[in-house]
DNA sequence: ACCTGAACACCGTTCAAGT
DNA sequence: ACCTGAACACCGTTCAAGT
């Protein structure tokens, strides 16, 4: 939908407005269609004007990742300690899978956004509550994070399909979505906790 | 002696030649630089000529993924059964991390290549050898595969870096590469095997 | 019949010219 | 001083014209 405002009181261009427009474009037509021309059109301005507020498309995607990280969940203290960690990861999975561009934008970015710090802190607290040391907690965080990204990317595949709609391989259908990730995530956490903690 | 090809010594264009050239371009300058123009230049032909053998760039990436899958490892029967599964995954990780474009080309593709069938069969054999049923083996395969993709994508990040070379976040450095993946993979497999096998 | 230069419709980015 | 239309250098893809 087009943010159409009378030219007189159209708000001044800003990074926030650009990011919001980019988000709207990505939500509705996907990350590949997120072009600076489209963002400019959504804002009713010229494409060159965007460069007054952002360095380039790379930075815009970074800002999008930052914006996304603002909504990362926190642990629920009402839950028993053992359940907090898996529940938090499940919550993050639910949040990220609501935006098909989320995993892509995260994977394309080199670093974790600073806005993710509260989430990670919350995660480390949960890890400490079940007896993990800081190093083990970080390693586990990285492991589940990578697992999550893998599942998200396979949930929203976008790529070179083979000819026709042929099924991948006979008998290869596996349950996807929330359930599959949660099962794998719990197995991974179990494996970490049952392990002799060699770290 | 008579030269069979009436043309110059340049061999006829074919899908295989195109894929080989694409692979060489991706290996040396990365997946983003893998343009049809560059592949054509590498082959000394016009870009339009490629379309005689491939449908479009999407298909070329698919062929690249197929070519990659041809080199997937198989289980080592000399190993004790318990070790075959982790060793096979470690071997796949080593193979894929040798090409920085590998994870990207796999993630962009919608389906697993048919050329990966021997690898997956080998994997399922290993799973059966440690007492996993077919459904559990498939679920586990999917889980470790997604974990692997996550690690590979973070090993070869290419994206919107934040301003300057600032470290991600203080104290956030975690060991990457082979070790980190292997640790996580073994934890995941342990978690699956120690689990009460609710599948 | 087979191939391909040149064109087309995009893209990110820049800059001289507008206000 | 601020903004932006138009241009530039790319990209994937197509097609009429070459051989």
Describe the structure.
Two copies of one chain form a homodimer. The first copy, chain A, has two domains: 7-67, Homeodomain-like (Arc Repressor Mutant, subunit A); 73-195, Tetracycline Repressor, domain 2 (Orthogonal Bundle). Chain A has helices at 15-29, 36-43, 47-50, 57-69, 81-97, 102-108, 117-129, 134-155, 177-194. Mean pLDDT of chain A is 87; it is low at 1-9 and 163-167. Chain A is mainly alpha-helical. In chain A, α4 (57-69) packs across α6 (102-108), α5 packs antiparallel against α7 and α7 packs across α8. The first copy, chain A, has nine helices and no strands. The termini of chain A are far apart. In chain A, 59% of the residues lie in helices and 0% in strands. At the A-B interface, α4, α8 and α9 of A face α4, α8 and α9 of B. Chain A binds a DNA duplex (19 and 19 nucleotides) through residues 13, 35-37, 45-49, 51-52, 56-57.
* Count of DSSP strands of chain A: 0
**Into which percentage range does the β-strand content of chain A fall?**
under 5%
Q: Helices and strands of chain A: which structural class? A: mainly alpha
The count of helical stretches of chain A stands at 9
Largest interface in this structure: A-B, 52 and 52 residues
Parts with pLDDT < 50 across at least 5 consecutive residues of chain A: 1-9, 163-167
Output the CATH class name of the largest domain in chain A: Mainly Alpha
Largest sheet of chain A: none
Q: Termini separation of chain A (Å)?
A: 52 Å
Supply the CATH architecture of the largest domain in chain A: Orthogonal Bundle
């Amino acid at each position: 939908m087009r943010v159409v405002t009378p030219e007189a009181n159209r708000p001044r261009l800003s990074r926030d407005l650009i990011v919001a427009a980019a988000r709207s474009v990505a939500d509705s037509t996907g990350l590949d269609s997120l072009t600076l021309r489209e963002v400019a059109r959504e804002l009713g301005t010229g494409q060159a004007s965007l460069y007054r507020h952002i360095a380039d498309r790379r930075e815009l995607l970074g800002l999008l990742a930052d914006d996304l990280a603002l909504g990362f969940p926190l642990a629920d203290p009402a839950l028993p300690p053992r359940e907090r960690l898996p529940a938090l990861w499940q919550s993050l999975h639910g949040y990220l899978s609501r935006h098909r561009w989320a995993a892509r934008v995260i994977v394309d970015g080199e670093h974790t956004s600073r806005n993710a710090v509260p989430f990670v802190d919350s995660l480390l607290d949960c890890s400490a509550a079940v007896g993990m040391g800081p190093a083990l907690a970080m390693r586990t965080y990285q492991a589940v994070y990578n697992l999550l990204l893998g599942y998200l990317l396979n949930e929203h595949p976008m790529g070179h399909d083979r000819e026709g709609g042929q099924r991948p391989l006979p008998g290869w259908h596996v349950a996807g979505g929330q359930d599959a990730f949660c099962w794998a995530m719990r197995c991974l956490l179990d494996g970490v906790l049952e392990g002799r903690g060699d770290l």
